[in-house]
Amino acid sequence: MKGYKGKIIHVNLTNREVHYVPLSEELAKKYIGGSGIAAKIFIDNYKPDLIPFSPDNPLIFMTGPLAGTKVPSTSRFTVSALSPLTGIWGESNSGGYFAAKLKFAGYDGIIVTGKSDTPVYLYITPDRIEIRNASNYWGMDTYKTEDALKETLGKNVEILTIGPAGENLVLYASIVNRKGHLSGRTGMGAVMGSKNLKAIVVEGERPVEVADSERLNEILKEILPRYQENITVLALRDSGTNSSFDLGIQMGDVPIKNWGLGKWDKAEHLGPSLYKETIYREIDTCYNCPVACKRIIEVNDGPYSVEKGPGPEYETVCAFGTMLLVDDLKFISKVNDFANRMGFDTITAGSTIAFLMDLYDHGFITKDDIDGVNLEWGNKEAVLELVTKIPTKEGAGALLAEGSEKIAEKLGKGKEFLTTVKGLEVPMHDPRGNFGLAIGYATSVRGGCHVSSLVYPVTAGFAYFPEIPELVDFGDPLSDESKAVLAAKANDFGMFFHDSAIWCILGGSVLNATEIVNIFNAVTGFDFTIDDILEKGERIWFLKRGISHLFGMRAKDDKLPAKIITPLNEGPTVGVAPNADKQLKEFYKLRSIDSETGLPKKEKLLSLGLTKLSDLLYNKNI
Ligand code: SF4
């Protein structure tokens, strides 16, 4: 078996034991890698009384077989655990350089269980795993931690670290590598903080062997020129992920004023042209990715100065820009820099502030509830004051650190202003401009998410898989027709492509499905077909969803918040909205899911070989 290293590290921080878990060919063939294998590890070690911050919650870092090879845009990793934000299956996916380095050190993944009495970091080399004292780094921001560890250990290491937000258990804390690459969603940084694990450092130079390098070279020769001519790649290289902002505004894709407005005359101040003119300095990239969509920015003047470093992505520009009616890229850069350093997710943070702005606007909360801050739409100083309190949970920061859904529960009001699915704030793409996103968000296994399913890339038109008819013939973007069948297939393919083999949805979008399978086979030596990978994706989707069922998730949690599907009074999508219930009904039928409970039929689980999940859901004696 090539591509894989065949070895996963298991560190128990309570008793400080380290051992190795073999990554067998059977496991690789059934669950591929990334969060597919993580979900299998999770179910095999499932404990009914597990809670997110219990030491037993396994924090699972996994690469895929392509990480560290010369296949572009695949050196990524996933991190998974029971999410403290949502209470169900949580995972996040990141690029950067860590995944390749972990493979070079000789490992496919790391499982961390237990809890250390004192702050520690892991030091991982091909020859040894050490649990080291991190007391000197506790309290440091992620940038300083990375610099300080490199100062001590040399430049040739790669580092994952949490910041104060993770240490203080902010429920949407992130894990950061190389400063600008974040595992942001579902609070994996808080799980890391709950274990007193400040950082993971890896070092190694052992290459990843591939099964058929001649065949791989042939395919790469064919596809590499596309990275110089593909229109999506060129746009991403030119303007980063914010390249889609202007088109998004025209198409009604960008949420404005907590999803309440269809147009805003100041939106143009946040587009790629001004980004380039005002804050942009250089491009940056992930390991072996010719796309180079990352931005390095700098702000030298004014109240929001930012040292040269990673710049805001599209999602952050919207979460702290259009969502709050803030039209200032320098301000957004300041918030982004702070969130990266402190280690928290900007989508949840920005959406939570937008939610509070709506509550404030409608008189549900007053200044007294938020440390005397005047939280009017567009008030940058108010936003900054609240944001800076999140990582330490000082004053109103304690409320904000919970995310919007838990705030609504605590207040006992304001649920109508939420934009969460299964507790996770949806990303910055509006289903009223693209009806397929409704079922995409409703059925994403980690809650409101647009990357693990391929609904968004295929409907937005930057990914094209002609071999899979359901991903091509999905009808009018502004109709509910064919969206359920699209989502079922997009979930299956996404589970393989994005979550388990771990292609970047941006960098991988130049490939068709045949090329994806051929590359995967050339690296691993397997002989999968497109049908095979869809079948594996289906199994992984049902497994992750089933894990969430074990923690109480049911059909009621597949509902979309009214806020994101209420027709708007103006703008490009005026008066239209998807019928999410209709899409969901069709989806349940297609997927053999009981529409009352949201649970899968037992026979379906058994047909996919998910026996343990079936026993846990249907046989109470287990
Ligand atoms: S496209 Fe961007 S995010 Fe994706 S791997 Fe390349 S540089 Fe990283």
Question: Could you explain how this protein is built, in words?
Answer:
This protein has 24 helices and 17 strands. It is of the alpha+beta class and 622 residues long. The strands form 4 sheets. The chain has a 6-stranded mixed beta sheet, with helices on both faces. The chain folds into 3 domains: 7-202, Aldehyde ferredoxin oxidoreductase, N-terminal domain (Aldehyde Ferredoxin Oxidoreductase,  A, domain 1, 4-Layer Sandwich); 231-415, Aldehyde Ferredoxin Oxidoreductase Protein, subunit A, domain 2, CATH 1.10.569; 431-618, Aldehyde Ferredoxin Oxidoreductase Protein, subunit A, domain 3, CATH 1.10.599. It starts with 6 loop residues before the first strand and ends with a helix. 37% of the residues lie in helices and 13% in strands. The structure holds iron/sulfur cluster. Iron/sulfur cluster (SF4) is lined by residues 73, 95, 285-286, 289, 291-294, 504, 506-507.
Itemize the secondary structure elements and their pairings.
Blueprint: E1 7-12, E2 17-22, H1 25-31, H2 34-44, E3 59-63, E4 77-82, E5 89-94, H3 98-104, E6 109-113, E7 120-124, E8 129-133, H4 142-153, E9 158-161, H5 164-167, E10 175-177, E11 181-183, H6 188-194, E12 197-202, H7 213-223, H8 231-239, H9 245-251, H10 272-278, E13 280-284, E14 294-299, E15 306-310, H11 314-319, H12 329-342, H13 346-361, H14 380-389, H15 397-400, H16 404-411, E16 420-421, E17 424-425, H17 436-443, H18 455-460, H19 483-500, H20 513-524, H21 530-550, H22 580-590, H23 602-607, H24 611-618
Parallel strand pairs: 1-6, 7-12
Antiparallel strand pairs: 1-2, 3-4, 3-6, 4-5, 7-8, 9-10, 9-12, 10-11, 13-14, 14-15, 16-17
The structure holds iron/sulfur cluster (SF4).
